[in-house]
Amino acid sequence: MTIFFAHKVEGGDAFLGYGVVEQFQPLEELSEGEQEECRRMGWRGAICFREVVKFEPPLLIRETPIGDLPAKGRYLHGYPLQPKEVESIMNIAKGLCTLMKVDC
User: What percentage of residues in the chain have a pLDDT greater than 90?
Assistant: First the structure.
């Protein structure tokens, strides 16, 4: 599964990069300190990424196939993308941005 990271930047909502999920660890499988942090943040567990890639510069969402969605800002959280949308966003990012792998 691929998760895109989005945030508001000077030009509007933008994808900052993406992560490829390796596994999800529920609260019970985490250390006491990690469980405490998850509870404080309202999380149900931890996502472990196989890789994380940063877009430089960020890719404005309006320049992607989902730019016309009525959902904006925080309403994009958890929005399910179709495989063709993911592929299209990745292709646009490769053409407009430098993709930098981030150490996790």
Answer: 79
* Residue 103 and residue 53 in contact, taking contact as beta carbons nearer than 8 Å: no
**Sequence letter at residue 18:** Y
Beta bridge partners of 3: 19
Backbone φ and ψ of 53, nearest 5°: -125, 135
Segment 12-34 shows an average pLDDT of 95
Of 98, 77, 80, which Cα lies nearest the Cα of 17?
98
Contact 58, 15 (CB under 8 A): yes
Q: What is the pLDDT of residue 93?
A: 95
60 neighbors 40 (Cβ within 8 angstroms): no
Report domain extents, the chain.
2-23+50-102
